[in-house]
Hints:
Blueprint: E1 4-15, E2 18-29, E3 33-37, H1 44-51, E4 59-64, E5 67-68, H2 74-81, E6 84-87, H3 99-109, H4 115-128, H5 144-157, E7 162-166, H6 174-189, E8 193-197, H7 201-207, E9 210-215, E10 218-223, H8 225-230, H9 235-243
Parallel strand pairs: 3-8, 3-9, 6-7, 7-8
Antiparallel strand pairs: 1-2, 1-4, 4-5, 9-10
InterPro entries: AAA+_ATPase, ABC_ATPase_HisP-typ, ABC_transporter-like_ATP-bd, ABC_transporter-like_CS, MetN_ABC_transporter-like, P-loop_NTPase
Main location: membrane
Pfam families: ABC_tran
Amino acid sequence: MPKTTIELQNVQKAYKGNLVLRGVSGKIEEGKTLAIIGPSGSGKSTLLKAINQLEKPTSGSVLFDGQDLVKASNKELQHLGESIGMVFQSFNLFENQTVLKNVTLGLIRVKKMGEKEAEELAHTYLQKVGMDAKAKAYPSALSGGQKQRVAIARALAMKPKVLLFDEPTSALDPENVGEVLKVISELAEEHMSMVVVTHEMNFAKKIADKVWFMQDGQLIEENDPNAIFEQPKEAETKHFIEQVIID
């Protein structure tokens, strides 16, 4: 039976009295890929940020390896945060630093790694995502797809237990989408524990071990990809699937 890495227990999040997460509960299993789908404004990205405490839940628990992150101290969160990597839709690279420096910065500052060791590790992960040839380049010289691959390398270099992706292709031109999805697919094949918020339905169907469908801040349905996309049980899920194209 797969080990649970993260467990959400009745997670709620309110902004100025508006409830954007309405009691989400579920388990994220080790070595599996979870895809979260749903219409815009359904709470997908907020849920992702609640997992790594970028957004503090109003109530509920986020258990990571048995520890409740909601109740953790800042020091505990900093330590645990190293185990949860995140790749944002807008890359979040430092424009005034080279590709190599973007990857080594966290290793040196957070992991307290020596510069030489950090650079060796950075080259390893840049090579993994096909970006080592651009190690000396600055982000301004890269395409969106290349920037996102650097962001993935940066997250992987920290050796997280779980990697979160927040709409990793939404800011990309169509011709750059495939190269990023290829990298994520390879990580799925290697059984990296991942949570991917995505609007790429064919991709979700292909790589996910489990799919969550969210609407109005609620987890409406969870199942394996074939069941979700071909035989959804809930009316809301069925309506959403009918609106998207699945090959």
